[in-house]
Design a protein that fits this description.
- The protein has 17 helices and 23 strands.
- Helix 10 packs antiparallel against helix 12, helix 15 runs antiparallel to helix 16 and helix 16 runs antiparallel to helix 17.
- The N and C termini lie close together (about 10 Å).
- The strands form six sheets. It has a seven-stranded mixed β-sheet with strand order 10-11-12-3-13-21-14. Strands 16-20-15-19-17-18 form a six-stranded mixed β-sheet.
- About 30% of the residues lie in helices and about 20% in strands.
- It has about 550 residues and is α+β, with helices and mostly antiparallel strands.
- It has three domains: about 120 residues, Dipeptide-binding Protein, Domain 1 (Dipeptide-binding Protein, domain 1); about 100 residues, Periplasmic binding protein-like II (D-Maltodextrin-Binding Protein, domain 2, 3-Layer(aba) Sandwich); about 220 residues, Dipeptide-binding Protein, Domain 3 (Dipeptide-binding Protein, domain 3, Roll).
- About 50% of the residues are buried.
- It is found in: Cell membrane.
- Its main location: membrane.
- This is Peptide/nickel transport system substrate-binding protein.
């Protein structure tokens, strides 16, 4: 593992690099110390990335959680990708165009790319992946494949399935034909869940690639010790010449925020994701550490299970929205790195409705609504929460305790039930909860990604992504029409109508929009936290290699 060197070593390193730059040598880049770092000097080393929870699966098509995607995004690549400015860029597809009717899309694929097992990436490989994803009868269609029906209207054979066909029209040319116009279609191809896997590996492991991921990305899967570490090694045949720089990346699970910060301070880890907001001050005051901020692109909320009494009554849900002091929660647990939330869309995303009237904190009005619903004396219930920190919820148990205290003021006794991340996801998707802490970080820059997976009635079949089990025909109709409308102004109007309806029906208590803090040691260079949390480590290097 790389340790932080200080004092004399830094002075010597700067002097050596300056001499190297003056003598010609390799192409070089500026360093933090004001000298330069050559491409050769960037090579090597192991980065230890500390985080609060383990991945659920390393088969990207079978996950929706950020901890899994954080790893798989460095193993697999998609046809297109979102850059740090949330603009679509080419990846495994270098060019694309569509027919006049917007239904037939042709993609030119990158040549000279190989999967980690040495087999060729080509159009047939992409077709193989789509067939696995979309066809429940495919022998390699093993798992839930949750994101595919969110986006493509079900699977092959379903009435609303979006895709007419996916076929290779050349070794590196692909055609995808849609049954209807779909405004965010290109965005779908940039979602990490649709990373292209090696057909040979899928066949070898008979579709059970959860622990045998083989992609085209900058890093190769090496080892997974559950709830401890995932180790990736440099892809020596990566198509970007000279990259990645690192020899290895280790994703280290340290559940407690304070323990993770201590590990950063002692040099056990090099990057820290997820911390108590108040600890940002500690990082800023500690020599050798650097505070980073992930651009805000998330929502944090508490979902009601609307299939269970009394949460099937909108008045109860509205009352609880008024009973929770959201501003106090944000002030207490986010240290200035969050704003109170109103909409299920983040303010940074187009389509956000800034005219929504928030539920103001009002204990007396909450009591009045509960009485009108027949719960004058309150009731007993359960509040589920994850034990691990999330980007939208840095201290989930403490936030749940604050909500528990607020609910007690209106006569509601809430027992807190906490579990680790993978178990928590399973329990809530199966609808075991009455109320549950939750959140979402966008994986594409389109309102469809926030609203359709989490609130469409089509996503309430267990295991459900819509854990509120909100089944509004009107809401689903609005977001479906928006998905199939090309004119963005019209889409915005439809999304605003949907947000107004959401506000009235109150299937969630909106809590916060956050700017998640991270930290690193000062010898880590090139790490840029991505708004969607799918951080690529291709350009990361260490300046203190031993």
């Amino acid at each position: 593992m790389n340790k932080k060197l200080v004092g004399l070593f830094h002075l010597i390193l700067v002097f050596v690099l300056l001499l190297s730059a003056c003598s010609g040598g390799n192409e070089s880049a500026p360093s933090e110390s004001g000298g330069t770092v050559s491409e050769e000097d960037k090579q090597g080393g192991t980065l230890v990335y500390g985080r609060g929870a383990d991945a659920v699966s390393l088969d990207p098509i079978n996950v929706t959680d950020g901890e899994s995607i954080r790893v798989t995004h460095n193993i697999f690549e998609t046809l297109l990708e979102y850059d740090e400015n949330l603009e679509l860029q080419p990846k495994l597809a270098t060019e694309y165009n569509s027919s006049e009717d917007g239904l037939t899309w042709t993609f030119q694929l990158r040549e000279g790319v190989k999967f980690h097992d040495g087999t060729d990436f080509n159009a047939d490989a992409v077709v193989f992946n789509f067939e696995r994803w979309m066809d429940p009868e495919n022998p390699y269609h093993k798992g839930d494949f949750p994101y595919y029906p969110f986006l493509y209207g079900g699977f092959k054979g379903d009435e609303n399935h979006l895709i007419e066909h996916v076929k290779a029209t050349g070794e590196h040319e692909l055609e995808i034909k849609l049954k209807r116009k779909t405004a965010p279609f290109l965005s779908y191809l940039a979602i990490s869940m649709f990373g292209i896997a090696s057909p040979a590996a899928i066949e070898q492991y008979e579709g059970e690639v959860n622990e045998q991921p083989v992609g085209t990305g900058p890093f190769v899967f090496e080892e997974w010790s559950r709830n401890n570490t995932i180790t990736l090694a440099k892809n020596p045949d990566y198509w970007m010449e000279g990259k990645p720089y690192l020899d290895k990346v280790i994703f280290q699970v340290i559940p407690e925020n304070s323990a993770r910060l201590n590990a950063l301070q002692t040099g056990e880890i090099d990057v820290l994701d997820g911390m108590n907001a108040t600890d940002t001050n500690v990082v800023e005051e500690t020599q050798g550490l650097e505070l980073l901020k992930r651009p805000s692109f998330n929502i944090g909320y508490m979902a009601f299970n609307t299939e269970k009494e009394p949460f099937d009554d909108p008045k109860v849900r509205q009352a609880i929205n008024m009973a929770i002091n959201k501003e106090e929660i944000v002030n207490a647990f986010y240290n200035g790195l969050a704003d109170t939330a109103t909409s299920p869309l983040p303010p940074s995303l187009w389509g956000y409705d800034d005219t929504l009237e928030p539920y103001e904190y009002n204990v007396e009005e909450a009591k009045k609504l509960l009485a009108e619903a027949g719960y004058e004396n309150g009731f007993e219930t359960e509040l589920y929460t994850m034990s691990n920190p999330r980007p939208y919820m840095p201290e989930p148990v403490k936030i749940a305790e604050a909500i528990q205290s607020d609910l007690a003021e209106v006569g509601i006794t809430a027992e807190i039930r906490s579990s680790e991340w993978a178990t928590y996801l399973d329990d809530t998707k199966q609808g075991k909860h009455s109320m549950a802490m939750y959140g979402w970080t966008g994986v594409m820059a389109d309102p469809d990604n926030f609203l359709y997976p989490n609130l469409s009635k089509t996503n309430t079949e267990k295991p459900a992504q819509n854990i509120a089990f909100y089944k509004s025909d009107e809401f689903t109709s609005l977001i479906t029409e928006a998905r199939e409308t090309i004119d963005q102004d019209k889409r915005i109007e439809l999304y605003k109508q949907a947000q107004q309806l959401f506000q009235k029906d109150a299937p969630w208590v909106m809590l916060a929009y956050t700017t998640p803090p991270l930290a690193q040691v000062d010898y880590v260079e090139g790490y840029e936290p991505h708004p969607m949390t799918n951080d690529l480590l291709t350009d990361v290097y260490l300046t203190n290699q031993q």
